[in-house]
Design a protein that fits this description.
The protein is mainly α and 200 residues long. The chain contains 8 helices and no strands. Helix 1 runs antiparallel to helix 2 and helix 2 packs antiparallel against helix 3.
């Protein structure tokens, strides 16, 4: 643990936020054909990276400051991604977002699942910061349901609805997380620190 940063939130934000800024800068420097699409896709990819680190930390370390930092940074990156999509692609129109989801997935009401995901992640981060004691004692079923829902959304976003290299990266990430879940945890963890609520 000595090698971990002393201020994990500062460290994770110092990685995540510049990565988001680099996305916006890259779409201008590279003069891509569709900067709005580029920014939206790559802010999602930064968010996915932060989510992956957070989940890996949660599985192996439990509810630690490092896990909370990456979970928070992933949420911030996701909010930036959503704002980018709504501002640059949908013109802040729910109707246009609904139509886009209908086009890409064949089920427009799926937009409400995205809204639930967004509110759920924000609420979860706020709960962890504002009431860490209450957060630590929530039910394992709730913990598993939340992370299962998040993983379902991430899997669909990276594997089901993506193609090419991103799909393979998504498959590799989920395979890696499954391996982490299957590996025995040798440390004696307290119940409130047990990874994904699956230990003890």
């Amino acid at each position: 643990m000595a090698m971990l940063p002393r201020r994990p939130l500062v460290f994770s934000l110092a990685v995540g936020i510049p990565a988001i800024m680099a996305v916006f800068a890259a779409s201008r420097w590279l003069q891509v054909d569709d900067p709005a699409d580029f920014d939206t896709r790559w802010t999602a990819r930064v968010m996915f990276l932060c989510w992956t680190i957070a989940v890996a930390c949660r599985i192996r370390l439990g509810r630690t400051p490092e896990t909370r930092a990456w979970w928070t940074t992933g949420c911030v990156a996701f909010v930036i991604h959503v704002a980018t999509a709504f501002a640059r692609i949908h013109g802040w129109s729910h109707g246009r977002a609904f139509d886009h989801v209908e086009e890409t997935s064949g089920y427009g009401p799926g937009i409400f699942v995205s809204y639930l995901f967004t509110l759920g992640w924000i609420a979860d981060v706020l709960w962890w910061w504002l009431s860490p004691g209450g957060y630590a004692t929530r039910s394992r079923r709730g913990e598993i349901a939340l992370h299962g829902f998040f993983a379902f959304i991430m899997f669909n976003g990276t594997v089901v609805y993506e193609t090419g290299p991103i799909r393979w990266v998504g498959l590799a990430v989920f395979t890696g997380l499954a391996v982490l879940l299957a590996m025995p945890i040798k440390r004696d963890l307290e119940p409130e620190n047990s990874p994904v609520g699956l230990i003890r």
